[in-house]
From TrEMBL, chain A:
Name assigned to this protein: Fumarate reductase iron-sulfur subunit
Catalyses which reaction(s): a menaquinone + succinate = a menaquinol + fumarate
A GO term for molecular function: 3 iron, 4 sulfur cluster binding
4Fe-4S ferredoxin-type domain segment(s): 155-177
Annotated PROSITE patterns: 2FE2S_FER_2, 4FE4S_FER_1, 4FE4S_FER_2
Alphabetical UniProt keywords: 2Fe-2S, 3Fe-4S, 4Fe-4S, Iron, Iron-sulfur, Metal-binding, Oxidoreductase, Tricarboxylic acid cycle
Taxonomic source organism: Cryobacterium gelidum
Any one GO biological process: tricarboxylic acid cycle
InterPro entries, alphabetized: 2Fe-2S_ferredoxin-like_sf, 2Fe-2S_ferredoxin-type, 4Fe4S_Fe-S-bd, 4Fe4S_Fe_S_CS, Beta-grasp_dom_sf, Helical_ferredxn, SDH/FRD_Iron-Sulfur, Succ_DH/fum_Rdtase_Fe-S
Domain (2Fe-2S ferredoxin-type): residue spans on this chain: 19-113
TrEMBL record, chain B:
Ranges that cross the membrane: none
PANTHER family linked to this entry: SUCCINATE DEHYDROGENASE 2 FLAVOPROTEIN SUBUNIT, SUCCINATE DEHYDROGENASE [UBIQUINONE] FLAVOPROTEIN SUBUNIT, MITOCHONDRIAL
Catalyzed reaction equations: L-aspartate + O2 = iminosuccinate + H2O2
Superkingdom of origin organism: Bacteria
Source lineage: Bacteria, Bacillati, Actinomycetota, Actinomycetes, Micrococcales
Domain named Fumarate reductase/succinate dehydrogenase flavoprotein-like C-terminal: residues: 450-538
Primary role: Catalyzes the oxidation of L-aspartate to iminoaspartate, the first step in the de novo biosynthesis of NAD(+).
Domain called FAD-dependent oxidoreductase 2 FAD-binding: residue spans: 15-395
Family the UniProt entry places it in: Belongs to the FAD-dependent oxidoreductase 2 family. NadB subfamily.
InterPro entries named in the record: FAD-dep_OxRdtase_2_FAD-bd, FAD/NAD-bd_sf, Fum_R/Succ_DH_flav-like_C_sf, Fum_Rdtase/Succ_DH_flav-like_C, SdhA/FrdA/AprA, Succ_DH/fumarate_Rdtase_cat_sf
Pathways per UniProt: Cofactor biosynthesis; NAD(+) biosynthesis; iminoaspartate from L-aspartate (oxidase route): step 1/1
One GO molecular-function entry: steroid dehydrogenase activity, acting on the CH-CH group of donors
Organism name: Cryobacterium gelidum
Protein name as annotated: L-aspartate oxidase
């Protein structure tokens, strides 16, 4: 079989070496424990492994009772937000090589929501706030038959950043106001309100702004920027909240 | 440890939807909008269905970008790309109703990309004659899924998460519900329903390299349908994507966009040869998906692949600027997954099972099946894609048939005057779960699942031949035997092990149907290549329908309506013949 050859030899990727890393995980089993406690595990990992891989290894090889949420493992479903070395991140998107593995890695549940078991918290209060902002398009006008609603590129771009939210709660559970005041809507709900308030096709901005003008609404935000740092999707959360504040003051989006 | 007492719930609804991806949610929305009692059941959290991984786009001949476009042309492109195995009636229904699908999404707030004047933007995608693929950045599937989730939430559609359905309940070939268990605590769930819609995906997870996630697309849709009395159509027709990565193990099969070749990436074997010169010297790396997959497969099979069984996709000669601006996701993905810098190093890739073009046998009009009251939609169903799927057609199919099936099931439910149930059927389903749970054999379920994937990769991959297919079927017999001696051990963390056992049986059935039909299709057509029958056989321009008893029927495909056929002649055949 003849083949076209070229001068260049392909660069074949090198073998990657593994190493031992210690995870210190905050455990809690409501059936036996009064208080959460820390437990450490040693696992063999590659630099390209994620924290989620480490948790799986522990669960499958060392302690089947370790409990955490996970689903897509691609940073899309938002189910594995946790506090890793004191920072809220998605376990499936946090690479070993990006952590200082000469020291133990601390993993615990996100804060501010009721702890259920190990790394799992009760997400109901979080989703209640989300639902309260009416996170769906409301529009009573029917477009011309066979046509779509028109939206300019600029109008579409206006809410692009806040469409990226995956409802992982990393932002809301990083917010010091939310930790101390569980009634506060929290950044994620405001981000999802922003998504529709600034969508030119939506007609219910006034209602949402009214909801967020509540004393537990946007005005609780102290612009700490924790939420923006925590967002695994890179959403400018604090800015979105500021835009909602301005819209309330102006009385329109 | 869980004890053996059976605890459970009994739920009643009018229509049960199995699966909460795009098609399942669309059907549930339709039912809810019509005021029909509906329940959607999923084995995953609802925000996380497979639809969310679809990147490319969604097709409809809106004719706003190219005024000459029409649904007839879209149908013509679809049928031609299918190597004439698409059912023309199915293609007609999807393309005629595609505009409505886009409008539905738009009405519910889907953030489509826009043109300067505000129209929905559409672009070329694969072998379309005109620009008709709408999109939302790189995340079209994700945005569709989220739009549907938001609409379902607004309508308060009840969704039962984390429930695995093991059986569809049938009496005298009429559906009356489904049986399953809760993945968290093992408690049983009996759902009584007038109609059942299967929307739980295809079977591409039964190959070693697959773009499907773990524990999804295991063929469970096929098993549920066949056990209930349904049949499968074209199980052998599976689309392979040319470029899935090999490592790390947990991300194997992650796709490298074909844009990497489009921008000038070259393919080499381990000897450094640009092997496409031997397969398609004119178009080289820009050749079609099935052809590039076939070429890469052949190189690997003939011993010119890398040690890990791949070939090299190299973009390192491209200007760094081009990679950063045109292929940012390729750069980022490889950096994240392999700490590999694509601006200096080649990527190891191999053909990867990507989409089940066949599926449960359904009627084109309403996707009803052989069982009265049972429907199938989405990747679980069949009829639209034939031997090669037109890019962007899978997402629109969800929208169109989700709505039509929702309507059909609503009408069926409203029209029945009585329902006969069978305690025997419920007892049998209960016993099956109980017995499986009690299995204490020495065979490991995960290991058997791996073995099926190896068998399918060795004998049911990109290129097949009679000797291999027969050997594959023999190995499946062996695996079936070992399957009877599995051990299932649920732990405090839940009952996923039990689900894997059911997945395993489903995969075995899907694998058997695939290999048997591949053996029967003694020709090469589209994604199905037979090294012992390299040509297309006009006598096999039929759909192959597989039944539980192992028999395979040849189903004639209706003629293409004249108005669509006329448009196919207008499309250049020259490029197509190469495929």
């Amino acid at each position: 079989m003849s083949s076209a050859t070229i001068d260049q030899k392909p660069v074949v990727p090198e073998e990657i070496k593994s190493f031992t890393v210690t995870l210190i995980i905050r455990r809690f089993n409501p059936e036996v424990d009064d208080e959460p406690h820390w437990q450490d595990f040693d696992v063999q990992m590659y630099p390209t492994d994620r924290v989620l891989d480490a948790l799986h290894k522990i669960k499958w090889e060392q302690d089947g009772s370790l409990t955490f949420r996970r689903s897509c493992a691609h940073g899309v479903c938002g189910s594995d937000a946790m506090r890793i070395n004191g920072r809220n991140r998605l376990a499936c998107k946090t690479l070993m090589k990006d952590l200082d593995i000469t020291k133990p890695i601390y993993v615990e549940a996100i804060k501010g929501l009721p702890l259920e078991k190990d790394l799992i918290v009760d997400m109901e209060p979080f989703f209640d706030s989300f639902k309260a902002v009416q996170p769906f398009l409301m529009n009573s006008v029917t477009p011309e038959k066979g046509k779509e609603r028109i939206q300019t590129v600029a109008q579409r771009a206006r809410f692009d950043d806040t469409t990226k939210c995956i409802l992982c709660a990393a932002c809301t559970s990083s917010c010091p106001v939310f930790w101390t005041d569980g009634q506060y809507f929290g950044p994620a709900a405001i981000v999802n309100a922003h998504r529709f308030i600034f969508d030119s096709r939506d007609e219910n901005a006034a209602v949402r702004l009214d909801i967020l003008n509540d004393k537990e609404g946007v005005w609780r935000c102290r612009t700490t920027f924790n939420c923006t740092e925590a967002c695994p999707r890179g959403i400018q959360v604090t800015q979105a909240i500021a835009e909602v504040k301005q819209a309330i003051m102006r009385g329109k989006a | 440890m869980p004890d053996n007492t059976v605890t459970g719930r009994r739920i009643s609804t009018s229509v049960l939807v199995i699966g909460t991806g795009g098609s399942g949610l669309r059907a549930a929305i339709e039912l809810s909008e019509r005021g029909v009692d509906v329940l959607a059941v999923g084995k995953r959290p609802k925000n996380d269905a497979h639809t969310s991984l679809a990147a490319g786009g969604i097709n409809a001949a809106l004719a706003t970008m190219d005024a000459e476009d029409s649904w007839q042309q879209h149908a013509a492109d679809t049928i031609q790309e299918s190597y004439f195995l698409a059912n023309p009636h199915t293609a007609e229904i999807v393309t005629k109703n595609a505009g409505r699908g886009i409008q539905d999404l738009e009405r519910w707030g889907m953030p489509f990309a826009r043109e300067a004047d505000g129209r929905i933007s559409q672009r070329y995608f694969g072998a379309h004659k005109y620009r008709r693929t709408a999109f939302a950045g790189d995340y079209t599937g994700l945005e569709i899924q989220r739009t549907l989730v938001a609409r379902a939430a607004q309508l308060e559609v009840p969704i039962l998460d984390s429930v695995y359905i093991t059986r569809i309940l049938v009496r005298d070939n009429v559906v009356f519900g489904a049986y399953g268990f809760d993945l968290r605590d093992g408690s049983r769930v009996t759902i009584i329903a007038d109609a059942v819609i299967i929307a739980a995906g295809g079977h591409n997870r039964i190959w070693r390299r697959t773009s499907s996630r773990r524990d999804e697309n295991t063929g469970d849709s096929f098993k549920l349908a066949v056990d209930a009395g349904g049949r499968l159509r074209d199980a052998e027709l599976v689309q392979f994507h040319p470029s899935g990565i090999l490592e790390p193990e947990n991300a194997a099969g992650t796709l490298i966009s074909e844009a990497a070749r489009g921008e000038g990436g070259v393919l080499r074997n381990v000897l450094g040869e640009r092997f496409m010169a031997n397969y398609d010297p004119e178009r080289m790396e820009l050749s079609t998906r099935d052809r590039v997959a076939l070429a890469a497969y052949t190189e690997i099979k003939e011993g010119r692949g890398t040690a890990k069984g791949g070939v090299l996709l190299d973009i390192s000669h491209l200007p760094r600027e081009t990679i950063m601006t045109r292929l940012p996701r390729v750069y980022q993905t490889m950096l994240e997954l392999q700490v590999l810098d694509v601006t200096t190093t080649a990527i190891e890739i191999a053909p990867t099972a990507h989409y089940s073009m066949g599926g449960v046998w359904v009627r084109p009009d309403d996707h009803s099946t052989d069982v009265v009251g049972m429907y199938a939609i989405g990747e679980a169903s069949s009829g639209l894609h034939g031997a090669n799927r037109l890019g962007g057609n899978s997402l629109i199919e969800l929208l169109v048939f989700g709505r039509i099936v929702g309507q059909a099931a609503a009408e069926y439910s409203a029209g029945i005057t009585s329902q006969n149930r069978s305690q025997e059927a419920i007892d049998a389903a209960e016993r099956e779960v109980t017995d499986t749970l009690a299995s204490d054999g020495e065979e490991n379920v995960r290991a058997l699942q791996r073995d099926i994937r190896n068998t399918m990769t060795d004998f049911g991959g990109v290129v097949r031949d009679e000797a291999g297919l027969l050997e594959g079927l023999r190995e499946l017999d062996e695996l079936d035997d070992r399957q009877k001696r599995i051990g299932v051990h649920p732990d405090v963390a839940g009952f996923s092990g039990l689900a894997h056992a059911f997945d395993l049986r489903a995969s075995l059935m899907a694998a058997r149907a695939t290999l048997a039909c591949a053996l029967e299709r003694r020709e090469s057509r589209g994604a199905h290549n037979r090294s012992d029958y390299p040509d297309m056989d006009p006598a096999l321009q039929v759909n192959l329908v597989w039944s539980a008893d192992g028999s395979i029927a040849h189903e004639q495909i209706p003629p293409v309506p004249a108005e669509i056929a006329a448009l196919m002649e207008n499309v250049s055949q020259a490029g197509k013949l190469l495929e």
